[in-house]
Every structure is written in structure tokens, then in C-alpha cells.
Amino acid sequence: MAAVVESGEDAFKQLFKFYKRRKPPPDFSDVIDFSEHRCTGKVVPLKLNPSAVCDAAAYRVGLHPARDWRAYGLQGYPGFVFISNPFRKGSQPFWIRQCLKTYPQKPNVCNLDMHMSLCDTQDIWQRSVHSLSSPSLPRRQEKSLLERLRWVTLGYHYNWDTKLYSAEHHTPFPSDLETLSQQIALGCGFSDFEPQAGILNYYRSDSSLGIHVDESELDHSRPLLSFCFGQSAVFLLGGTQRQDPPTAMYMHSGDVMVMSGQSRLLYHAVPRILPAPPALLSPELQNLPASTPPEQQQQQQQAPPSELEPVSEQDWAVCLRYIQSSRINVTVRQVLGAGQSFPQR
User: What does pTM read for this prediction?
Assistant: First the structure.
């Protein structure tokens, strides 16, 4: 990898440009793949706190029991936790549908609000269903609103101009995402984590996310949680200085990343979206939901109740069409610590 380094340019920027490059395509052999479940080089196994997560609570939000989560850390990155797809088979479609159909709804805020009237962005899903349900046309002239979606904010809405949160710009945080986030946080040892803000990023195959650090929250003692759905990405995790050389890793659908402690304020970026390996896309991400076999129906009747509503074939057809070439990333964070309030401005 030293061959990609150019004098006068910081190491992070060099590697970002290297993986973003299309021609010639970069060599991805140095990218860590946690789905291989191998602890070599920088990768170390992590012991979580499974007793803190009730099996029934995990089941209700689509997670395996916490004792079955495969968690890893990286040498030199204390506080960084990577959980390789802790989702039960068949549960990701619910979360994908929430990200595409539910969370972009008002009163939540999205990038389309910046240049369209609120009545035009009132129901992004409904306005996109016809376009994404019809057969692909070689020259479909206009993208649907869903395909033009780049970000959605939840809870305390992040202001992209001022880089700040405020008490005035707030709507209720989704209860289902709150519960999911709290189960992950509990398993990682954060019993008092309160999800207060979320940012959903929607990536097309040619998208990227520049080098940045998430420091706008007033309390940095709480973790930053990140959930990945759809296509895969190369994620770069650097240091406390923007020029520090980063470590490259894949994020696949269902993976969860936690940045806490000394890793909470590290620079990071996403230079590249890649087709997900077919073996890692569970069958429900490749086909429409099939009818449940009788033996599975009996197992489901004996299982704890789930908060995940079934995804209809019609909804999944739209979701599937979207994620075949796109990636969704959800970051959840706590903005205020106990007893904290926003400063007067």
C-alpha cells in the first residue's frame, strides 16, 4: 500500500482517493473482512456483555441472542467494536423498509426539503412506488424521489450548515430504532445509552462519504452506533488527526459498528460502495418473501412476540429494487448527557 503514498499529501486522503479510484480499479486485498471471522493481524475477538441483553428483547427487534453475536476489535483502536451481522434471518427487510418507507416521512427532515416544498416531500415512498415497481427502462429519464434521497435526520435534527443540534429543531425519535439501538448498546456495556438523534445516509453505487469526525454531540462519553443495510462499503477508520493513516474494512448488510471511548472521535470516511458478496446477502435480500413453511410457523408461534411487522410483497419489491444498487447506513447517537442542556445562543 506504500506505493499509493504521494509526497505532500496526508495518508488518509491518499488512501481515500486510492479506494475511490475507478480506473484502474484498486487492490482490495488489504481491506479487513470481519465476515471471514478470522482474528489475524489487527483483528482481535471481543467479549461483550450478553447477560445484559434479554433474549426476548433481542428477538423482538430482530437480533440473535447476544451470546451469539460475533464481535471484534482492532489493535490500536480501544473502544471500537464491530459486530458481524447480529440480525436474525428474515429481520433485515423490516429495517430496510423502515429506512425507505417510514423514516423519510414527515416530520423527519431530508435533503429534498432543501429545494422542494414540504407538500412535495410529504410522502416520498408513495411518490416513488410506481417508478420503482415498473420494469427497468434503458432510458428512464427522471429518478424517483427515493432515488434522489441522500440523507434523513431523526430526533434532534443535525444542521448541516452550522454543524449543530438545537432544542428547537427536534421531533420524536422512532421507538423501534431506539429499542434496537439500546439492545446493541447494552451488549457493549452502555446501560444508560439514550438514542436522541439519527442520521440516515443513502448511497448509490457511485457515492462516497468524505473524511470527517462526529463531534457535534455535546456528550462524547456515549457511543456512536452505525447500522449497514444493502450493498457493501469500504470504511476507513483513522486517528484523532485528519492526516493519520486509516485502517480499511468492509461493512456488509446487517453489520453493526460501535465507536466509543478513545475511538469515539476518530476520523472516518466511506470512499467506495461495492456489490455485496452473494454469499453474504441472505436469501430474503435476493428474493421476495416466501410463504412460511408450516414447521417454521409452529416455531414462530412458540417464539417471543416480535415488534417487526411483516413486509408485504408489494413493499419488498420496491425495497429490493432499491437495494440492488444502493446502501443505507443508519447512525444513532446521544446528543446530551444526563443533566445537560443546549447552550443559549
Answer: 0.91
Convert 209-226 to b/e letters by CB count within 10 Å (16 or more is b).
bebeebeebeebebbbbb
Query: Measured between alpha carbons, how far is residue 199 from residues 4, 193, 243, 307, 333 in Å?
Result: 32, 17, 25, 22, 9
How far apart are alpha carbons 214 and 201 in whole angstroms?
A: 14
- Which residues lie closer than 8 Å to 180 by C-beta, 6 or more apart? 61, 62, 63, 95, 227
> How far is 279 from 96, CA to CA, in rounded Å?
19
The single-letter code of the amino acid at 258 is: V
Is 268 annotated for ligand binding? yes
Q: What's the CA gap between 288 and 172, in Å, rounded? A: 32
The three cell numbers of residue 80 are 471500537
Relative orientation angle of helices 124-133 and 313-323, to the nearest 10 degrees: 80
**What is the 3-state secondary structure of 206-266?**
CCCEEEECCCCCCCCCCCEEEEEEECEEEEEECCCCCCCCCEEEEECCCCEEEECHHHCCC
Q: Name the helix (H) or strand (E) containing 179.
A: helix 175-187
The whole-number pLDDT of residue 1 equals 47
**130 marked among binding-site residues:** no
**β-strand pairing of 256-259 with 80-83:** antiparallel
DSSP 8-state symbol, 85: -
| 252 marked as binding residue | no
| Distance in angstroms (rounded) separating the CA atoms of residues 83 and 229 | 14
Q: Residue 2 above 50 pLDDT?
A: no
HSE of 278 in the Cβ direction (CA atoms, 13 Å)?
Answer: 1
Tens digit of each residue's pLDDT (9 = 90 or more) over 237-253: 999 999 899 999 999 99
Residue among 341, 335, 344, 339 at smallest CA distance from 173: 335
Strand 151-155 with 247-251, pairing? unpaired
* Gyration radius of the chain over CA positions: 20
